[in-house]
Amino acid sequence: MKIFYSALSPFVRKTMIVAEELGIADRIERLPAAANPVNRDRNIIPFNPLGQVPTLITDDEQVLFDSKVICEYLNTTFKGKLFGDDTTRFRLLTDHAAADGVIAASLLVRYELLARPEALRWNEWVDGQTDKITTGLQYFEDKAQALYDRIDIVTITLACAFDYLDLRLPDYQWQKRFPGLKAWYDKFSVRESIARTKPQ
User: Fold this and answer.
1) What is the number of other CB atoms lying within 10 angstroms of the CB of residue 113?
2) What is the largest CA-CA distance in the chain?
3) Are residues 102 and 154 in contact, defined by beta-carbon separation less than 8 angstroms?
4) Which of 22, 6, 10 is nearest to 67 (CA)?
5) Most CB atoms within 10 A, among 19, 27, 44, 127?
6) What are the counts of helices (DSSP H) followed by strands (DSSP E) for the chain?
């Protein structure tokens, strides 16, 4: 398998944590990519018209994107249990969507502050996306105790969200806002798959 890879992408990281947990990370060749919302990576587009990472090329040359699809493919193909069972699947998928939404809002804030010229920045947009981060994380703060002793697509995605916020939006200071999530993540973050993939 091959994956268009960017080390700082939280969505790429999510797929690689899934691969680590399934014991198949060494079977995935990492193809360097420079996905950008403005200067698009033309090497990706023949495989993924959106030109985004992650994009996975399977051993039988299927092309899969985005991270939600890739993670489900890896979990199904390699007999994982990261998406729950018949009784928990849709709860996990819903919480996965919420955690993914936090990452997406974080990326949109980052793009507004990084890619848009300062004179054209829309502060209300930044405020709206930041509020989405806050309400999304409050959703998980309210049930932080239920995250302990779990390794699944939700806890993996939250880990990616927290480390991306630390890396790209450190002034947000999520740890001070959400002490229950901080206490959980302090324990979860020492997991080998999380520590090994943490962006530097």
Assistant:
1) 13
2) 51
3) no
4) 10
5) 19
6) 8, 4
Q: Give residue-wise pLDDT tens across range 54-105.
A: 999 999 999 999 999 999 999 999 999 999 999 999 999 999 999 999 999 9
- Domain spans of the chain, in order of start: 2-78, 88-192
From the CB of residue 133, how many other CB atoms can be counted at a distance below 10 Å? Answer: 23
> For residues 133 and 106, is the Cβ–Cβ distance under 8 A?
yes
Non-local CB neighbours of 62 within 8 Å, separated by 6+ positions: none
Measured distance CA(159)–CA(10) in Å, rounded: 9
Residues 76, 91: Cα–Cα separation, whole Å:
18
Distance of alpha carbon 31 from alpha carbon 88, whole angstroms? 34
Q: What is the CATH number of domain 88-192?
A: 1.20.1050.10
DSSP label at residue 31: E
Q: Which CATH superfamily is domain 2-78 in?
A: Glutaredoxin (3.40.30.10)
